[in-house]
Amino acid sequence: MEFWRPEVEALPPEKLRAHQEKLLLEYVKYAYEHSPYYRRQFDERGLRPEDIKNLDDFFEKVPMISKLEIIENEREKPPFGEFLAVPPDKVVRIFISPGPIFYPLTKDELENAVEMCAACFYTCGVRAGDVVDVAFAYNWVPAGTVFDDACRRIGAAVIPAGTGFTDMHIQVMRAASVTAFVGTPSFLMQIGKRAQELGLKPKQDLRLRVGVFTGEAVPDSLKRELNALFGLAPMEIYAAAEVGIMARECPAAASGKVRGLHIYEDIVLELIDPKTGEHVPPGEPGEVVATFLQRRSMPLLRYRTGDLAAGLEEGVCECGRSSSRLLKIVGRVSDVVKVRGMFVVPSQVESVLRRHPELGRFQMVIERPATLDELTIVVESKDRSEELRKTLESELKEVIKLRASVEFVDKLYEDAKLVVDKREFE
Ligand SMILES: [Zn+2]
User: Fold this and answer.
1) CA-to-CA distance for 114 and 145, rounded, in angstroms?
2) Residue 20 needs a FRET pair 20 to 30 A away by CA distance; which of 12, 71, 375, 389 works?
3) Can you give the CATH number for the domain in which 381 is found?
4) Which of 171-175, 324-328, 368-372 shows the lowest per-residue confidence on average (mean pLDDT)?
């Protein structure tokens, strides 16, 4: 087995936890001593860094932070609000993400960010000698430049392609024998289709052997299509500008032997119930909350990503890594409804209905006629047969793990809401 950082990637689970706790205690102390924001947060709660002795204390006592709180704080005192935790002249890069949110980085931190991405790309199979097309934006956000640096650190040659210019990508992929693609899966699909229009056979005429995808949902069906079209290994990473790469797929997961994306070893990742803030039971879906233990210019403790993941899987993987695996991101927390204690995401319902191209738009209606929630999927359909209704209900049950009734209508209102919650909450 090959690891970029064997000293942490191959640690047994209990040693990995110890590694994280050691970093965490230093990090909490650092945040308290250097970040005016965390100094205030801790003082207001009468909390001292010494009160955090392990991960459980951290989860129990340290407040979470959302994107909105960062935006508001920075807006009051631009550009970094109360977050800057290093002398201003140590900042060498400022990344901007929509909001806008300003992220300062020092030279050392940029090194850490590149190292993190290199470790993750290496897990995905990028190697020295690869020629990589980096098809993420190089302006404002970290993606393009940091991924570029990471591929070069591995020893690959990088084409700083950025977004757009489909035909140019095809031309360059052929001429320079590009072997790896880093970008969104939908853009690579567009490249593949365009190549076919131009009379090329992507599998034979191009040399792509690995694709590293992020930036949007990466459905398994799309991965299979990309594999069939290019003959490449479709690998997924999960990233956010606020944290970095939080998780990446390993070859064992890509081949379907195990599920999920390994969490980066220097990140503490939790799944919470977005309503209560409590940890969800093992294996259940929840909002991703992440702490990158190496971020020094702008420490963020327990950052709420707003992404809902299907669950976490524990246990040492066939690839030899022991970090837990994050299951699929199924949607945004803002789109989620809780029915009978289970999260239901419109995109899950949509994925079932899409298997039947004859169906039109749909609406999710949740009611509580007595004590139990009832979920009805109202869907536009010409076919009103009992057979179709039964098929849909059983397919839905499989995906959303809940019984839902299906109702057919000719047409929904033009601006019908996706989710209608008729329950009354006290
Ligand atoms: Zn693995």
Assistant:
1) 9
2) 71
3) 3.30.300.30
4) 368-372
Find the 285 Cα to ligand 1 centroid distance in Å.
20
Whole-number Å distance, alpha carbon 253 to ligand 1 midpoint, is 6
Cis peptide before 79 (omega within 30 of 0): yes
Residue 122: count other Cβ atoms within 10 Å of its Cβ.
22
Compute CA distances 42 → 38, 47, 73, 317, whole Å: 6, 5, 16, 38
Q: Is the pTM of this model over 0.70?
A: yes
CA 252 to centroid of ligand 1, rounded, Å = 5
The 8-class DSSP code of residue 264 comes to P
119 in the same domain as 74: yes
Distance CA 288, CA 326 (A): 9
Q: Hey, what amino acid is at 38?
A: Y
Give 75 Cα–ligand 1 centroid separation in angstroms: 41
Predicted local confidence at residue 425, as pLDDT: 61
Please, what is the Cα angle at 327 between 128 and 321, to 5 degrees? 45
- Same domain for 382 and 271, yes or no, is no
Question: For 109-141, how does the pLDDT look when each residue is reduced to its tens digit (9 = 90+)?
Answer: 999 999 999 999 999 999 999 999 999 999 999
- Tokens at 194, concatenated: 């365009």
Domain termination residue (choose one: 303, 335, 367): 335
Q: Are residues 358 and 245 in the same domain?
A: no
Give the pLDDT confidence of 371-411 residue by residue, as tens digits.
888 999 999 999 999 999 999 999 999 888 889 999 999 99
The residue segments making up the domain with residue 364 are 341-421
Would you state the structure tokens that stand for residue 422, as one six-digit string?
Answer: 């008729």
- Per-residue confidence at 1, pLDDT binned at 50, 70, 90? low
Same domain assignment for residues 54 and 68: yes
What are the structure tokens assigned to 96, written together?
Answer: 């901007």
Number of folded domains that form the chain: 2
Residue 260 Cα to ligand 1 middle (Å):
8
Residue 158 CA to ligand 1 centre (angstroms): 26
- Separation of 314 CA from ligand 1 center, angstroms? 11
381 and 239 in a common domain = no
426 domain-assigned: no
In this structure, is residue 165 part of a structural domain? yes
Q: How far is CA 340 from CA 267, 293, 345, 348, in A?
A: 32, 36, 13, 16
- What does the block give as tokens for 296? 């020094």
Task: Flag the least confident range among 8-12, 157-161, 224-228, 330-334.
Answer: 330-334
